[in-house]
Amino acid sequence: MPCPSATFTVWTSAWLVGAAAPDDVLDALSPWADAHDVQAADTDTARQTGLPAPGTPVTSLTFLLAALRRTAGAGREPSPARLVLPAPGDVRGLPGPGPFSRAALTAGEGVLFAEAGLGAGLGVVPAPVADGVLRWTVYRVPEPGPPPEFVAVGQAERDLREQVRQATSVLTSLGVARHRPGVREEIAAALRARPRSLWPAGMPQQALRVLQQADEVEAILAAARVDEPGGALSASAASARHGALRPIETAVRVARRAAVAEAVRVLASAPLV
User: Fold this and answer.
1) I need a surface site. Which of 24, 200, 259, 260 has the fewest CB within 10 A?
2) Secondary structure element (H or E) that encloses residue 14, with its range
3) What are the tens digits of pLDDT across the range 64-89?
4) CB–CB of 138/45 below 8 Å?
5) 194: left (phi over 0), alpha (psi -120 to 50) or beta
6) Residue 24: strand, helix, or coil
7) Does the structure show a pLDDT above 70 at 273?
8) What is residue 87's DSSP assignment?
């Protein structure tokens, strides 16, 4: 699954500490959609951020960046962005029940600014609203929740490799996709079709490597979910496949979060542009 929130998290964190320019953020997000628009989730958030309320004309990413800068407040240490990648049964990183958490769970991704200078945090969730149009909806988050789970990027990388190994063994024993000789080509095509991710100068190499591995594993997962030609898998085989893939799906999310968190940490100490 594409993850524009990862791009947004890294670049806005770099920009908020002066390690990137606003145009850099906009350029990095451009591959994810032909057009981006922005709207507040409700009138209260609109009033506090200056972003358009539901039912009014939407605005652009430039105004979202301005709102993030403005709500940080003069003299405040800007809050780094936090990537959230929730899934049913795995809501780590979410601040607790509320509109932002529900929207992020539906989208499978989001960005949390735990302290936005409003007496609360802000959450941002991207979702397609039309062909080629990605809308970033901004939520006020009254209670940012506990500190995020820390996973060292090296450990996440090792866990991802191990889960791939185990899942491959299980899927091979199940005979999944054995009659699909074009699977490798499918995976390569899926990777080529992904938007090209752009990252700031100074991005840590291990984080880059893990993000690339997460993309590759995600493409493998997508291929593994496809039924064999001639009919669907039996119920028992489908259940076994789902059970084999679930841990690796979790490992991909953990690895991506860890890589982005490491990038944010490193870039926060980068020289000002």
Assistant:
1) 24
2) helix 4-16
3) 999 998 876 544 555 778 999 999 99
4) yes
5) beta
6) helix
7) no
8) B
What's 140-190 look like in SS3? EECCCCCCCCCCCHHHHHHHHHHHHHHHHHHHHHHCCCCCCCCHHHHHHHH
Copy the structure tokens of residue 115.
């302290």
- pLDDT digits 0-9 by tens, 16-38: 888 899 999 999 999 999 999 99
Cα gap 199→187, rounded to integer Å = 23
Strand duo 81-84 + 121-130: pairing: unpaired
Task: Classify strands 35-40 and 133-141 as parallel, antiparallel or unpaired.
Answer: parallel
Distance separating alpha carbons of residues 124 and 31, to the nearest angstrom: 18
| Predicted structure pTM score | 0.87
CA distance 168 to 117: 47
With a CB cutoff of 8 Å and minimum separation 6, the contacts of 32 are 2, 4, 7, 126, 134, 195
Q: How far apart are CA 205 and CA 153, in angstroms?
A: 11
Which residue carries 């989730």 as its tokens? 41
C-beta contacts of 124-131 below 8 A and 24+ residues apart: 124/5, 124/8, 124/64, 125/5, 125/100, 126/4, 126/5, 126/8, 126/32, 127/103, 128/33, 129/37
Tell me the C-alpha distance between 195 and 183, whole Å: 21
* Cα gap 251→156, rounded to integer Å: 7
Count the helix, strand and coil residues of the chain and give each as a percent rounded to the nearest 5. Answer: 50, 15, 35
Query: How many angstroms separate the CA atoms of 84 and 101, rounded?
Result: 9
Per DSSP bridges, beta strands 81-84 and 35-40 are: unpaired
* Residue closest to 164 by CA, chosen among 253, 252, 257: 252
Paired tokens of 236: 């028992």
